[in-house]
Amino acid sequence: MRKNISGYLGIIVIMIGFCLMAGCASDSDGEGQRVGWVVGSSTGDTVGDRYGVIFHTVNGGETWTRQGDFTTVPDTNLGGVKAIDEFNAWAVGAKLGGYGTILRTWDGGETWHRQGDNTTIPEVDLHEIGVLDTERAWVCGESGTILWTQDGGHHWTVLSAPGVLTGANLYVVAPIDRMNAWIIGDEDDGYAVIYRTVDGGTVWTRQGTAETVQAEGLIDISAVDGQTAWAVGMNETIIKTVDGGANWQVQQTCEPVEGPHVNGVCALSNTHAWPAVDNDIMSYTTDGGATWTSMSIPATVGDGYHLICVSALDMNTLWVTGTSFIGRPPIGEILHTNNGGETWEKQTMPCDSMLRRISFVGSPK
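Now predict its structure.
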């Protein structure tokens, strides 16, 4: 009997080994465990419906649910979100009640808590949050505002008060580690701002020149490491650095002619990246930006929306938010592909909203 039991155990071990090699020991590689959040504008006609939009999924967007209510989520527009893990996420948004909005969840969005108050957070719109881990994050916003926390948001430090570093709006912060981060934003003194810190935010150094940046405004940045980053913006602009920002190379632009805006970028490596463009256009590179391949979302799926933000797990699997500015519903869309853009699906939202940023656990964005 003991011999037979040993034989059965051996068979079980072999089966488990095959299962692991086939990737079936866990659902973490499948749609079933893909956790993400989307944020957008406050919506609703009644008091109970008027609060900032936070959508959440635990299955890759097969279903999205709205989180929070008017008692926990302020009646304001939310513009930035970052998923850390299945339980932890931050969201930021416009000012309300005398200070910018920062929201935090520790329980997967079952509850959202507003952080700070009008004595610690400036009265400005906050545009995006860059997260290192569950404790440390930077926030950037209106009029050059930069904030920092190292205790999960229980306390926020103003690194740059409004108008001190620059009067330009800062839209995205891309942290590398505790000491290093990039921030991009609107035009100041004739060209878009790029700032870099290498000392944790004590000093922010402006990078680039009017000749090398060649953009009226930058909208997003995605950093691979302390040397390599892509920034994108107005009028088809895509620029890249491979030396920590000492030099920025223009890879694509139609400046000074007006053109579609590149609103988002998700860099997966120093060679692979996905930008999101106006008019339901996605683009990608696999050679560091030497060449870019563009694709239009089929009219049967999209509706000519401006694509705002992309959150990619790899070159095959990504989600994109889009917003319509033509004034007819639906005004928001969530798009998904699991085959590198060969096919796209529009995912069902709990309610219509002007969506902004999207973030999935495991994605650089």
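The helical segments are 2-22, 210-213.
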